[in-house]
Design a protein that fits this description.
Layout: E1 6-18, E2 23-36, E3 42-49, H1 60-66, H2 70-73, H3 79-90, E4 96-99, H4 103-116, E5 126-129, H5 130-138, H6 148-154, H7 167-181, H8 184-187, E6 192-193, H9 196-202, E7 223-225, E8 232-234
Parallel strand pairs: 1-4, 4-5
Antiparallel strand pairs: 1-2, 2-3, 5-6, 7-8
Length: 239
C-alpha cells in the first residue's frame, strides 16, 4: 500500500423519534478519531461533544452504556460545526477512514442527510470496514459480529485507563487492534474508494418481490450456472 493517511473514527449516538426524519433517528452526540502513521502508531487525536437538538433527553440505554450525561453535552458544538472541525483536522490529504463495522458510517450518513440534506460525507474519499478486515485477519467467521471490546480481549490488548463506549477511547482501541492485525499485503486491497457507486452499495436494502414479471425485476440477472453441468439456468414464473 502506498503512503496514505489513516484515520480511525468512532461515534456515540442517542436514538429518538423524529417527526422531521419521519421515524427513528440516531443523533450523534460524541465523535472520537485518531490519525495513525504507516507503523500504525497514533499521531494525533480528535474529540467533539455535540449538543443534541432532536431529543435533549438521553435514553437510559445510552447513559448506562456510555456514562455520557446531558450536562456534559450542554456546552457541546453543533453537528455541522463538528463536521467542519473534523474535516479541518483531517486536512486535505485523501486518506482512508476506518470504522468498526459500517454502522458508524451509516449513522454519520444519516446525520448528514438530516442536518445538511445530503448523505455524502465531505472528508470521506477512501473507506474500510475495519471489523470485517480484523475478523478476516483473526480467523473469525464473517457470519459472526465480533464486538470491539471482545476483539481487543482476544488480542490481549489491555483496557487499563480506557472508557469503553466513549468515542475517543474506542477509536484508540480500534487503532490498537489495527497494530495487531495489520498486514501490508492485504490492507490496501480492503480499502474501498468512495464514489456514487459506493453510496449505492452501502445503502442498498433488499426488497422482496413476489411477481417475477414485475418491471423492477431484471430478467437478465435471473440466470445461474448449474453446479453439475455448467449450463445456464433461468428462473421461471410458476403458473
Amino acid at each position: 500500500m502506498s503512503a496514505m493517511q489513516i484515520v480511525v473514527v468512532d461515534l456515540e449516538w442517542n436514538g429518538s423519534w423524529s417527526k422531521k426524519a419521519h421515524g427513528y433517528f440516531n443523533e450523534i452526540i460524541e465523535v472520537g478519531a485518531v490519525k495513525v502513521d504507516q507503523n500504525m502508531n497514533i499521531l494525533d487525536e480528535f474529540r467533539a461533544a455535540i449538543k443534541p437538538v432532536v431529543s435533549k433527553k438521553l435514553s437510559t440505554i445510552v447513559t448506562d452504556l456510555t456514562n455520557i450525561t446531558a450536562e456534559e453535552l450542554e456546552d457541546g458544538t453543533t453537528f455541522t460545526a463538528m463536521m467542519r472541525q473534523l474535516s479541518k483536522w483531517m486536512g486535505n490529504e485523501p486518506g482512508a477512514v476506518l470504522t468498526w463495522s459500517t454502522t458508524d458510517l451509516l449513522v454519520l450518513m444519516e446525520n448528514c442527510r438530516y442536518f445538511t440534506g445530503r448523505q455524502e460525507i465531505p472528508f470521506l474519499h477512501n473507506y474500510m470496514d475495519f471489523q470485517a478486515y480484523a475478523q478476516q485477519r483473526m480467523g473469525v467467521d464473517a457470519s459472526q459480529q465480533l464486538g470491539l471490546a471482545r476483539a481487543g480481549e482476544m488480542l490481549g490488548i489491555p483496557e487499563d485507563n480506557m472508557s469503553l463506549h466513549r468515542a475517543l477511547d474506542d477509536s484508540k482501541l480500534t487503532a490498537a487492534i489495527l497494530q495487531k492485525v495489520y498486514d501490508a499485503d492485504s490492507f490496501g486491497s480492503a480499502i474501498m474508494p468512495v464514489d456514487n457507486e459506493f453510496y449505492k452499495r452501502i445503502t442498498f436494502k433488499t426488497v422482496i418481490i413476489k411477481d417475477l414479471d414485475d418491471p423492477l425485476v431484471k430478467r437478465s440477472e435471473l440466470t445461474f450456472d448449474c453446479p453439475n453441468c455448467g449450463k445456464k439456468m433461468l428462473v421461471r414464473t410458476s403458473r
